[in-house]
Structure formats: C-alpha cells, structure tokens
Amino acid sequence: MINGTVVDLSRVQFAATALYHFLFVPLTLGLAFLLAAMETVYVTTGKPIYKQMAQFWGKLFMINFALGVATGLTMEFQFGTNWSFYSGFIGDIFGAPLAIEGLMAFFMESTFVGLMVFGWERLSKGQHLAVTWLVAFAANLSALWILVANSFMQDPAGATFDPFTMRMQLTSFRKLIFSPDAQSKFVHTSIAGYVTAAVFVTGVSAFYLLRKRHIPLAKRSLRMAVLFGVLATIGVITLGDALGFVAGRVQPTKLAAMEGLWKSESAPMPFNLIAFPSQREQKDYDAVQVPDLLSLLVTHSLGGTVLGVDALERRAQRRIEQGIPAVQALHVLARDPTNAAALAQFDAHRRDLGYGFLLQRYAPNLSQATAAQVRAAARDTIPFVAAVFWSFRVMVGLGLLMLAFFVLAALYSLRDVVQNKRWFLRAAVWMIPVPFLANECGWLVAELGRQPWTVFDVLPTWMSASTHSVAYMVFSLIGFLGLYSIFIVIELYLLVRAIRHGPAEPGGSGAPQGGHAPLAGGAVPAAAYGNKAEG
Amino acid sequence: MRTFLYFLLFMFLAVAVTILAAILGYEGAWYFAWLIGTAMLVLISAAGGALLDAQEASAAEAGREQS
Asked: What pTM does this model have?
C-alpha cells in the first residue's frame, strides 16, 4: 500500500505547481482577446494610438506567456512521475486531450505568438490582425483541452473500465468533449481569464492616469478593458451558476461541501451566507442564513432539495458494500480472465468499483471488512468542508466585488470622467490582485471538492500516486516551491519594470513621459494621437 | 475573377460557420455561447475605444466653438 504521507506530499506538490501556474494562465487567456480588440480598432480606424496600445500590452502579454509556459511544462510530467497509477489507469482517456492540446493548440499558439511579436514590420496590417486573433483563439483552445481533461476527473463521461486491461478506456470522444461539466468549466475559466485581464489593464491604466502619464493610451485601454470586464464578469457569474447546477447532479458531495450542508432538509432550503463548519461534529457554527436561497440557487426552484452530508454518507455506505464484489471479481479476473462467473459478478457491480477501492484503504482484504471500516470509508467521501466552503465564498464575494467595480468603472469611463476620480483610480490599482485570488479560490473549490477521488466515483486519490519515498517527495517539493517562487519574482520584476517604463511613444524612445497632457475630459486634441499617418 | 474568388471564400466560411453553429448549438450550447459571447465582448470593447475617440473629438470641437 502507498504511504499516506507520500500521497499527501504528491497532492501538495501538484496543488502548489498548479496554483503557481494558474496565476499566469488566466491573464494570458484574457489579455490575448483584449489585444485582438485593440488591434481591430487600429486596423479599422488606422489610428496609431491603438497600435501603440497593442504593442505595449503585447509586451506584458509576452512576459506573462513565457512564464506561464515555463510553469506549465512540469505539470504534465508530474502525472508520470508522481501519479503513475493514475496515469496508467486513465491514460487512454486523459492522454488524448492533453496530446491534442500540445500538438494542436499549444504549437499553434507558440507559432503565432512569434509572428505576433516579430511580425509588426513584416506582415500587412490585416495579416498581423489575423495572427493576433489566432493567438487569442489558440490560447483559449489550449485551455479547452486542458479543461476537457480536468472535467473527465470531475465527471468521467465517455469512458468505461475494462476488467481485462485493468484500465479505463475511451468509449465516446463526443461525450468527453461535450460533457456539461467540460463545457461549463471551460467557459467559466476562460471568461474568468477575461475578467483577470480586464482588471489588470484597468489597474495599470489607472496607475498611468494617477501619474498623468500616457493619458491617451491609458484612457483608451481603461475604456476598452472596463467594457470587456463588465460583460465578462456577468458571464463568469452566469457560468458559475451553471457549474453549480452541474455539480448538484454529478458531484453532490462537492456541492454539499460548498454549502456547508450537513443535514438534508425539506425545501425551500436556506443558504449559509457565513458559517464555520466543523468536520468532526458535522455541524456549522455561527451560521448566518438567507431563507430559501439555496434551493433557488442550486435547483432554480423553491421546491428543489439538495442532499446533505448525512444522506450522501448513507448512500456511499451502500455503494461501498456494492463495490466489494466488484473488486473481488477483479482479483479473480486478474488471475483467470476466462472466469465467466467472475465477469458476471464484476458486470453486476462495476458501477461501484471505485467505492470498493475506497474501502481497500481501510481493509486490504475486503472479505474481512468490518462495518466500522465501511463507515470510515463512507466518511472519507466528504471533502474538507471548511476549505471548500470558504474558498467558494471568497471566490463569489470577489466576483461580486469585481462586478460592482466594473459597473462603476464603466459609468465613469463612458462619461469620460474617470481620470478625475482619483479615489477610484487608486482603488483600481489595488484591485489588480483580486481576480488572481478569486481564480486560485476557484481552483481550490474545484479540486478540493473532488476529493477523495482523482477521478470522481472511479479512482480514489489514495491509490493514484507513485510509490516514491517521503524524502524524495520532500526534496522535489522544496525544489519546485523554490523554483516557482523565483519565477513569480521574475514575473513581477519584469512586469513592474515594463509598466514603469511605459509604452514606446510613436517615433520616440519609449522613455517615460512627464505629465504634459491635460486631464480634463475630452480636452486632448484627437489629432495629437489619432491621425492616420500610418498605412 | 477576384470578386468571384472572394465570393467563394466567403460562401465557404458562411457554410462552415452554419454547420459549426448547428453542431455546437445542439451538442455544446455553452461552447457556442462562448464563441458568440467572446466575439461580442471584443467588438463591444473595440466600439468603446472608438466611442471615446468620438467623445474627445466632439468635446474638442465644442471647446473650439466656445473660444
């Protein structure tokens, strides 16, 4: 049996690398489309200010893109090094979208990124615009395949376990890519990236407006980002609702943890606005509730009910008992694949195979499993409620904060008075870390809520890891944390340096400018930066 | 001839988009919404920039008339 400490260290290592990586990815996803928007205006109007914007934000995009790639490469290797049983068990399914991501989306993205950066003087305006759009689509296509793979871990659609090869095999690629979880997760994550980029561009533009530098560029960037951001935030919230709806059907334990719902109640059910869940006592302390809201949010009906932890544990106990014959039949088939009785027994209980695996953690010999061991395994099916509950609330709270921020920003920008609202500009700079924190919390909800499974209802986490030593895992974990921390410092240093340096002025050296442009709304002569001198 | 080739290209794109929309609309409504929504976000964002140009030009014009 795999050492539990090794499994925990493998989880920490993957979580740490994924959380680091996920600091870079969302900004890439969103900034690419904002670049496409800026360059579209440049090509359609011919005004050089928009080219300057696309080039400046493109430089920041490239810094972030390079470090995103560097942090992402190691993650795929971790599946093989730290999660070898998992990789062998579901590699036939999981490998397909990851291979497509590498061969199609990432290669496409990398190729066109090169053209985007070095092609300003070599391509026509239309060709360069097409390249920028392709970079944006390829970056999001890359995210699509990664999230299709991730969604299989949340809702294993389109695959079945083969008792002769002892691994999962793909039965329907269509079901894999069109599963409701894959769809809603991709759109939710992609648009969260749009929001991240919008907050980033708004914050940096606000910084320039506060310093009275690059005012035409900052005002236009801010205007475009806030309109992009306000609509994207509405989209993120809509898709978050869709994901909750999907989770209620395919991952009820995750939903119960998100809501701190220990007991099943009759409809309409109250929503825990704030609570302090106790896993040991299975109750919430100091809960502040909104009546009827949970039924409405999760089932879109006042008459809908959501299963609590108590009912889910009872259901898990029944499935564990049903999973025991499946695992026992599998052991017989491993020795004698022609045993028809074992195959029939396996087929009758194959749906609960994963629950049989769960019990093996407590009872390696399933024929001697006790009722207490079954209850302990059933209790394991509930994720760490407090972490999921609070990650979810922080994510939602920050999402609502960003919606309010963008609505106000859009109002000020559309009235062309945002440059006079210094308190708002200061707040906009402080908002920059908010979407990054919300993204990290979203990742925690998705992945902590999936526990104790690597593939939900199919493969428990405890048996997915490789058989490394604790010393090896500690050593590699420290190495990763050190290396990735250096990456973060490099990213911040390069971004801050590029932002402080500012955009290259048309025909100038690109050095920072002093505050020479008037701040009053509409007082900047358009001809100063809006002529069509460039063909 | 050039117009005809452009016509063929755009007809091909129109048919491809129609087929894609039919498949995605049925099998992957959220993917379809993402495609449409992203295009809309980019265009509204771009329109916002162009609108700011017009607002500033109009304000500059008003300033010249007052002086």
From this structure: 0.89
